[in-house]
Structure prediction request, 274 residues.
Amino acid sequence: MRFSIILLFFLILSSFSVYAEECDFGIEIIPNKYVFEYNENANFTINVFKNNGPTSDIILEGKITDLFGNVIENYRISLNGVANERNPKREPRVPAGSPYIIYFNLSEINCNDTNSINNFNEKLIFVLPEPLGQDYTTLEITEFFPHPTKHDAPMPEGEWIELYNSGDEYLDIEKLIINDDYGNGINISDVNILQNTTIIEPHDYLVIYRNQDGRLELNNEGFDKVRLFYKNILLDEISYSHTKEGLSWSKVNDYWIQTIPTPNENLQGRYREI
Prediction:
């Protein structure tokens, strides 16, 4: 009797192995790119696909490691009734300054996967370190033009702010922010600069134009400020309570006066006060 039960059990198991429907599932890791900057999510998509066979419930397992095998993040994702391509997306925060390996594999497939070689995939990605810091403390606001005759004109007309680099190093001011007193502001880029470069040479000036950007509007009447930020760090700030049309505010011998506008020029010792 015992022998009959055991034989029946093996026959049932054999029937499952013989009659289990065959299938072929595969996996592919698709980064949008292979190199990411330090402040980006290293996002990627796991493409789970079926070459043939019935639908299946699948477990998707994965991890991100550094080159020494240290695990940065683990994944275990359940996919139910996979019939066509399924593309779960992940956006991990991985430390900058190192290459990483993304591993993923398929497991617990309900059908008989006859081609397991495509059930595993890995990709190498690089996360670039943050650029070396620049000494923005050498930047200062030296002149600004809040009340031009043509207020909303494109550059070189319209409002502008002049910056001066008093240091001995070249500075890239791209993405620094010029704000007024109301929280409005523009991110500095080459579209606001006549020279088409955001680099200020040592001991030189560079004018940032509003260039019809409505996010920055300096007051013609009443109190306002011109403020220069790196991220949330205030680098320089100037306050004023009035202005005259066609004149700029200029810093001369550490005093602020209204003068004929002189963008990108040194007024020190040769200004014409109005």
Q: What stands out?
A: Residues 59 and 253 are 71 Å apart (CA to CA). The longest strand covers residues 71-82.
